[in-house]
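Hi V.,

Quick status before I head out on leave. The structure for the redesign project is tokenized and pasted below; the design run finished overnight.
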């Protein structure tokens, strides 16, 4: 099974300037792949991301990236953030930061790969065990409050990369204003009860753009323990 090209260990990075700052803004938590910090379900995978953002003139700007995610048998998670690059680019997106989390200690660590620094904080609340969106897509989830502008559709079960996933589509219709047309915002979540993560998320909002995130190259084995350790040459930074 192919893996991500491995970059030198935590190099100093130059951010790509071909994507606008607007396109580089992070996704909302509900529109991102949330790695649940649960024990006894180790894996490594690659998240493929395609995004489009609406420019002020109404045109679309398309970009893509990818990142590696992992979880070990203790429930510790590893989650990269990489640069966005043009959709047509053949380059490998560069690592910008890495988030580590240990559910046993509730210590969250952020590694700045450009500055080779890190900072930590202790999370007060217990770790979540399901993604923070459409909890009713999971057997153990709670039902969301009904909305007069939202409609949920059960998409059944399909395999994504050979792994069964249950799909839910939420369609929100925003009434027309100022003699315009109604705005339809669509979100899809494909949840794996086995891995306890969403394997695919699709978001579309005609006002801002769209995003598709797909978990690929899943390997159900223990990750390299070095992924969850702070590199020896990193220095502690002041917490933001």
């Amino acid at each position: 099974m192919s893996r991500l090209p491995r970059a030198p260990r935590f190099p100093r990075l130059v951010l790509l300037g071909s994507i606008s700052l607007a396109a580089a803004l992070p996704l909302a938590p509900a529109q991102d792949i949330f790695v649940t910090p649960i024990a006894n379900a180790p894996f490594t995978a690659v998240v493929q991301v395609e995004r489009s953002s609406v420019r002020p003139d109404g045109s679309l700007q398309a970009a893509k990236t990818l990142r590696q995610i992992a979880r070990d048998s203790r429930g510790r998670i590893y989650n990269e953030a990489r640069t966005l690059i043009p959709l047509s680019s053949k380059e490998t997106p560069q690592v910008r930061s890495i988030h580590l989390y240990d559910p046993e200690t509730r210590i969250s660590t952020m590694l700045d790969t450009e500055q080779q620094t890190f900072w930590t904080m202790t999370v007060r609340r217990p770790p979540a065990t399901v993604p923070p969106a459409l909890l009713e897509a999971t057997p153990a989830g709670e039902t969301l409050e009904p909305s007069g502008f939202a409609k949920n559709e059960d998409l059944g079960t399909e395999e994504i990369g050979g792994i069964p996933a249950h799909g839910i589509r939420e369609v929100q219709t925003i009434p027309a204003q100022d003699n315009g047309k109604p705005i339809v915002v669509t979100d899809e979540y494909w949840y794996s009860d086995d891995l306890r993560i969403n394997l695919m998320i699709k978001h579309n909002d005609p006002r801002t753009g769209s995003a598709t995130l797909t978990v690929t190259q899943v390997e159900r084995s223990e990750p390299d323990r070095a992924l969850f350790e702070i590199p020896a040459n990193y220095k502690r930074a002041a917490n933001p």
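Above is the designed sequence. Residues 1-25, 134-146 have pLDDT under 50 and may be disordered.

G. will cover questions while I'm gone.

Best,
W.
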